[in-house]
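Record type: monomer structure entry
Structure origin: computed from sequence
Chain ID: A
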Amino acid sequence: MDLFSPGKIFGFVWLLAIGLTDLKLSRLQHEWPPVVWLQILIGPFTFLLGAGLVYINKLNKEICTIETIRNYRDQFNLNTSRIYSSIIVLFLLFIFGYGVIYLYTGEIPIFSPKPGVARANFTMFGIGLFLHNVVLIVLFTVIYSILVKEKTSKKLLLGAMSVVSVGLYSLTLQRYQIFMTILLVIILLYYTTYKIKLSTTLITGIVIVVFFFLVSSFRAGEIIILVLYKISKMKFSPEYAVFTEPYMYITMNLENFARSIEKIEEYSFGYYTFDFVTAITGLKHWISEYFFMTENPYLISSYNTYSAFWTYYRDFGVLGIFVIPFFGGIGISSLYYSLREKPTLFKISIYGMLIYGVVFSFFNSIFGFLWYVYNVVVLIVVFKFISNK
């Protein structure tokens, strides 16, 4: 049994999200009419349909067992000296970007009297992308450790750089890259070692959730659990107010999506799906201001995410939530079976990045974000550089 097959991961995430949302434990939630339910389910259904078609096509073809893949790692043909050099470069760029932004903003978010504002401002066009190197620094350090059995001093240095990178990045109160780093390492170790099991995965999941809410508490400042409980208009007893934040973070995405489906009148034709294009060209804010685009429309609370499918729906309507998830399911599943047929560290790493997007599809679509595309492009470039072929 493969814990990280795309159908299993996606199915579990969306069954959990839909099931919790349907409990309607907050008065901010409302009952959805059948037509809204239908549109909510189109995206998950078409993704699983695309993934299922690939599964059927590969049904009678030979694939490597997880055991075989784990024993395959000695055949990964990568230049470890170049891996080491690449990590050094990525780390130096990370420190450079971090230092420049600190000098520009004059504060680090976690130490700011207004951490939420400082977090949003801790960036700079172009240079800010180097902060996202944290993902690749840790990933390639783990790859180096898997491939190299000796060279202890180099391993210690790379390990120290990874710790410093994660520590400094955590001070910015950003979470996406920390979660991506953790998930990529888990997937990499799962397919290349015997260190990751179901129990390990569950424990790691709990650690991620705890980290998520620790960061949230820093960002919330003085907002206490009971105030959040009142604002969220929860139906259960205040004795269980501690469950307010996790419940609302999961369920209000679909709630906002459902509410927006009923109200949207115009579509944005790719502006949000291909966010990285307008971001890297500098046209993003100009287009937004010129067309009076609202980033988070139809909100009735401070919860401002809608799930991944809202991105495609607000751009292309029903066609978007049918076509894009369908081909997304085909693409991710095709990569998965390519990995199972002929495993490489490159395929495992790219697959891990895609699975990260699948896991957080209940929250937002990350595939079009510039920082995500940057990580994917740099990952490809580094693998080209370290390949011995």
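Annotation 1: The radius of gyration is 22 Å.
Annotation 2: The longest helix spans residues 80-105.
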